[in-house]
């Protein structure tokens, strides 16, 4: 009887919610499925867009990473899908929707196993084995274009960019933007990050008015009255880049001066003016025609430069100044003392132009440029924002494809081929792993199925046709995928629907790891939220029931958290 007399052991704080076991895993899977159902309809060229309103800001997009980020998912398990979508976006730029859909389908298949009594570790083991086999097969069948001529490689990059843009809002202009993406990345050279490709948005005009600037372009910065008297165009200018403030400061805000004679005040003011004039004289002596500074250039300096036919711009954004430095070959100076001609940059032409309602500064003809700028035009602000996200994805894809020249067929072709391979492998083994790997193969088919359904076609019929084609094996039918435009099947490789192999490698790895991570969570512990104080540390002296933290209402000092009941005297 002694075991019935033992007092209960309390480990967790009172009110803590603890859920565990198979039901908890299934609950997490259901939460993930709800997120997948939201983004699933955005997959493919015929995918739908999502309108998300957040804090009065409206976003229209079908980019998986953007949708996931804007949803503000709070469920801890479902947030794992948000994280893999972000990781896919940062790593390769494309496949953000595919990775979420694939992870969701793997979890859906695992849910059936769990309900049938199979334990989670067995499922996780099978998924990891299947993923390794799929990645190995992916590397074997990918088409390597390394030995191709430069023109063929360029065509390959354009096709990869077009495939990425197919599912975006700017799909009607995919050839225009794909060529622009490739040109912008090729200007960077081999080892420069895509951050050196600036994308600037100017409302108004047509989408085809968008231009690629071989150099740097940024919007006119804040300026003072004398700015309009400055020249706005130079040929082969000398450019001085500064991280220096050229502005008089108000003494009352930034200094405390004690004087015994009022006449001394004028000498202090004169000294300040002499200091800034000395800086300006030294800048003029460098021979610079264009002066850019990260910090403010005041009205005195602006007029001073205007009188000497020098263009200046202050408060230039850090990224714009860094891109300008790379383009013109100068060095950013923190002082004007001892400036030598070696630190000045130059370019073929500088000009300030009116583009739509904005004035843009252009630095073109840079001899050793390592940067480029894309100016996007368009009507609605939401359209321009989505065009920027689309271009960012295509630039990332082109950059990755330049480093890794292996490509595979898109349109669900590679998923069908991997599915066929895993099904055949599953027949060669025994035990529960055969079932798990077989259902992993079935989960891969969700990509072509979803593409077909989103295109308005008969998903079951198209999937059966693809299974038949791929079952015949051989390289002839290896690249058959979904033709989203005609709701049929097609050889995606011949149709130039290409994707860099790294996109599929990253998506498969991330989706499998996310599914295994969620399946490995069998217990969730939620601690009760601490009651927040309702104000500062109140010191009310009232009697009776006091509200801790509200002065004048609590008995005693009222330093407790939340409501507090105190006895009156």
Silhouette: elongated
- Distance N to C terminus: 49 Å
Annotation, overall tally of beta strands: 23
Summarize the amount of helix as a percent range.
Answer: 40-55%
Beta-strand percentage range: 15-25%
SSE diagram, text form:
Layout (H helix, E strand, L loop, with lengths): L1 H4 L11 E4 L1 H19 L9 E5 L2 E5 L2 H8 L7 H13 L4 H20 L4 H22 L1 E2 L5 H16 L8 H13 L10 E7 L7 E3 L1 E5 L13 E3 L2 E5 L8 H4 L8 H23 L4 E4 L5 H9 L3 E3 L4 H11 L3 E2 L11 E2 L2 E7 L2 E7 L7 E7 L2 H23 L2 E4 L3 H14 L5 H13 L1 H9 L4 H13 L8 E4 L4 E4 L6 E3 H19 L3 E4 L18 E3 L15 E3 L4
Parallel strand pairs: 5-16, 9-10, 9-12, 10-11
Antiparallel strand pairs: 1-21, 2-3, 4-17, 6-16, 7-15, 8-14, 9-13, 14-15, 17-20, 18-19, 22-23
Helix pairs in contact: 2-5, 3-4, 4-5, 4-18, 5-15, 5-18, 6-14, 6-15, 6-18, 7-8, 7-13, 8-13, 14-15, 14-17, 16-17
Labels describing this entry:
569 residues, alpha+beta, five-stranded mixed beta sheet, four-stranded antiparallel beta sheet, 18 helices, 23 strands, 44% helix, elongated, disordered C terminus
Structural notes for this entry:
- This protein is an alpha+beta fold and 569 residues long.
- 44% of the residues lie in helices and 17% in strands.
- It has 18 helices and 23 strands.
- The strands form eight sheets. Strands 9, 10, 11, 12 and 13 form a five-stranded mixed β-sheet that branches. Strands 7-15-14-8 form a four-stranded antiparallel β-sheet.
- A hairpin with a 2-residue loop joins strand 2 (50-54) and strand 3 (57-61).
- The protein is elongated, with a radius of gyration of 32 Å.
- Mean pLDDT is 81; it is low at 534-569.
